[in-house]
Amino acid sequence: MNNQEQLTPAEKEVFEALRQPVQPDIQLEDRVVNALKEEGLISTHSGWRQWTLRIAASIALLAVGIIIGKITYSPMETTSQFNYMLVLYEDSRFTPSDPEEMFTEYSKWMTGIQEQGVTIDGQEMKPTSLFLEPDGSQVTTENERRVGGYFVINATSLDQAIKIAKNSPHLKYGGSIEVKEFMIR
Q1: pTM across the whole model
Q2: CA dist., res. 58 & res. 64, Å (int)
Q3: What are the respective helix, strand and coil percentages of the chain, to the nearest 5?
Q4: 152 class by beta-carbon count within 10 Å (0-12 exposed, 13-18 middle, 19+ buried)
Q5: How many other CB atoms are found less than 10 A from the CB of residue 52?
Q6: pLDDT tens-place string over residues 98-141
């Protein structure tokens, strides 16, 4: 439209009506819902039956999962993956070297054992011990001969466990090793 064109009074009235807010028909929602029901796009039935079936299916799947878990889980596999303990003793003959050097040497020894397919784990122990006596008293000691650490392994035999112990850097530093077999029942 250019400036020379003028709106008729009817056109002005239509434009003015467009500026006013429009209220939808109050029964519009009911007509749309009824039309969707007739087309089968929404259901008028309650969903209790479907909910019941879904819950029952979920419970059944959970039960199957628990049963399968119990069948495939074998507690013996995780309770005793080790069958020998190497107890490392230290006394006045034990002469450690640089801690970093010793750590590297023990780590290399453990890696070699793992490469043979033997599971190994261990820990160094603090020099003091706490003994609990039958009467409940506690005695803290620092013995001449003390446990300096331990390793647990899964060897195929006592001979293999002894061979592993003989190759330990602990013997090189003057320590001694006790090889103990677990009593697995």
Answers
A1: 0.55
A2: 10
A3: 45, 20, 35
A4: middle
A5: 10
A6: 888 988 999 999 999 999 999 999 998 888 888 888 998 888 87
> Phi/psi of residue 120, each to 5°?
-145, 145
Residues forming a β-bridge with 151: 86, 122
* CATH 3.30.70.1060 domain residues, the chain: 79-181
Cβ-count burial of 148 within 10 angstroms (0-12 exposed, 13-18 middle, 19+ buried)? buried
* Extended strands (E) in the chain: 84-90, 120-124, 129-132, 138-141, 146-153, 176-181
Residue 111: the pLDDT is 92
Contact 92, 174 (CB under 8 A): no
Cα separation of 61 and 44, whole Å?
30
**Domain 79-181: top CATH class:** alpha beta
What's residue 140's pLDDT? 82
Q: How many residues does the chain have?
A: 185
Identify whether the C-beta of residue 168 lies closer than 8 Å to the C-beta of residue 109: yes
pLDDT tens digits for range 47-87: 666 667 777 777 877 777 777 776 765 554 445 588 999 99
